[in-house]
Design goal:
The chain is about 5% helix and about 50% strand. The protein is mainly β.
């Protein structure tokens, strides 16, 4: 189990302007399409930023199910969760609960939707942002029809950071954003980035 630590810095003047203008700091797992166009990766964690923001997590994953559709500017709520989930496991989802039915040797999670309606499924991961822990927050989102199977591979240890205008309360999938920065964490588990007034860059404020 690996521990990861990302520090995101802002100048005092940028912190004031970002918050007064109604922007929110967002982090997603993996890469994100430029401008968010066509990208249905949910926002993993979002917060009103301070001058220094610390995001921590461990390489532990679970599964979630949600009745919320995968659409832009919607909230994907993890209505049912299994956390953690065994890598290589196959799970059926019926009666609003996960049931572990077998284990394979691959490095993926298999989910069978045994419900009567399409549902949203995905991987979930606990993340702590500025000492507030969000348990089993969605990191991916896919619509799965009844009696169909979805396979979830482990995402790369990459986080993408950007600001967005909070037009919808607690929306987890959005289309408009400021320039984003993707940070590869696999080979360097503790990193610092900062906002230079227009976009995010690697390294601390100097």
């Amino acid at each position: 189990m690996n521990n990861f630590n990302l520090i995101i810095q802002f100048s005092e003047s940028d912190t004031k302007k970002i918050n007064s203008d109604g922007f929110v700091l967002a982090v997603v797992k993996g890469y994100r399409a430029v401008g968010g166009v066509g990208d249905t990766t949910p926002i993993w964690v979002a917060l009103s930023p301070f001058d220094k923001n610390t995001i921590t997590w461990k390489s532990v994953y679970g599964l979630y199910a949600s009745p919320n559709p995968v659409e832009f500017e919607t909230v994907i709520s993890a209505s049912s969760t299994l956390y953690p989930a065994k890598l290589g496991g196959t799970y059926s989802f019926a009666n609003h609960a996960f049931d572990h039915i077998n284990v394979s040797t691959d490095n993926e999670y298999h989910v069978i939707n045994k419900s009567n309606t399409p549902l949203t499924f995905g991987l979930a991961q606990t993340v702590t942002a500025n000492d507030f822990t969000n348990v089993a927050n969605p990191v991916s989102a896919y619509s799965v029809d009844p009696n169909m199977t979805e396979v979830f591979a482990l995402p790369p240890e990459i986080v993408t950071v950007f600001l967005y205008k909070k037009t919808v309360i607690d929306a987890t999938i959005l289309i408009e954003e400021t320039p984003a920065l993707s940070v590869e964490m696999a080979d360097n588990a503790t990193q610092t980035i900062h906002y230079n007034g227009t976009h995010f860059v690697l390294g601390p404020i100097t």
